[in-house]
Write the structure tokens for this entry.
Amino acid sequence: MYTNSEGSESKTTQVQHDMGVDESLSPKPEAGRTVGPIDYMFMWLGDGVNLGNMTLGSSLVVAGIATLNIFQTFAAAIIAIGIISAVFTFNDRLGYRTGIPYVVQLRMSFGMKGCVVSSLLRGIPAIIWYGFQSWIGGTALNEIAKIVTGGTFDNIFACFVVLQVVQIVLSLYGFHAIKWVESVISTVIMLALIYVFGILLTSHSAVIVEKWVHAEGTWGLPFFAFIMMFMGNYAAIFLSAADYSRELKAGISDANRGFLYFVPIVVAYGFVLCIGAMLASATGISNPVKAFAIVIDNSYITFFVSAFIVMGAVAVNMVANIIPPTYVITLITKLKYKMAVTISGLLALGACPWVLVQDSSAEGLGLFILIYSAFLGPIVSILLIEYYLLRKQKVNVADLYKEDGPFAGYNPCAILAMLIGAGAAFMKVELAWIIGFVVAGISYIILMKFAFKDSKFKKGTIFEEKNVNVMTQSNL
């Protein structure tokens, strides 16, 4: 079954039967795809409207002075979103055409064994962030419980566990749950943010214009660093783009899929970033939660902000932090989807997020983010080079599931290119993603062409040994 042929259910069933893989990892047939374009857009809308992205907007205002003015902010955002949408569309095509998930797509470049390492670089950070987001959400849920009970209940850990159990139960239903959870949450949050936006415009417009709109800002390194920071929020997600596109109903062109990414990300990120910057300009406070309390001065502020945090945490986890590690666990352990998704939730519980949120852990958490982020650009670059340049979008999907097939073992070229790209990324952390992306891509092409002459991973690529064709013709 090649990428340009139909993915019939019989072939899907055959792959599953032959290799003993769980249904969640086998190619998803068109009949099994239930996410429509509107649901898909709401999914990315829900992922974007959260406190973390609002904090990114608030970070533009330092000591009451904006490092970027409103025009520079939105110029950087549009550039970043354009790149994000393009990478999404290019990297989701294999998953969309064939129905395979990200962990199987990795086998094409890294091999059956090599993909374990590269998949863990996506799965482990997702579990850490799963626990981190849930702890933040649990903290907010505890504030709501205190309000409802008049202060008689106060147990963050209990709320954390409850929220985690709810997310595990929801995730058992896969994308069926994700699409309606994201639709509901994104709608509620957007309506609430429109209300906040109105208050900021009517009551604080003068100071916002002075400190943000008319700020001098810069078109230098901070401008490009903000683009990289913006893209960093999506670096892990568009790496596993196939996990999402394989759920999308068939018949949507590449251009239209790009539209399905670009529009909701512009709306969600643009709006949330704007409110974050406006809050910081109006109050001089970079913490959005504290800034909310000043801007919306009424008895319901704590409840409102806490509800926003809880819903935002669930929305982000459902899209970005649950499905990817579940597929990794299924790949490595051969467990069924429901057991794997439960283990993902339990591992997030064991990630000790209550330690990560402490100020003393901030430096270690920052180092962890820096280390794993350095590998994300190189991996997506290798995948794109492999599929578009080396294989000309022609991949025998059945071979990706054969333990003794052409993708067995590991591809040293991919491993080395990833390490070279990641090493280069550390040279200039502000531009880590783009440096790693470019260096790894070039390294991979050079290595595939000149190194490891007998590598079986060259079969089917433009670098396949010509003497094979000569021998074939001589035998005719």
Remarks:
- The longest strand covers residues 61-62.
- The CA atoms of residues 427 and 435 lie 9 Å apart.
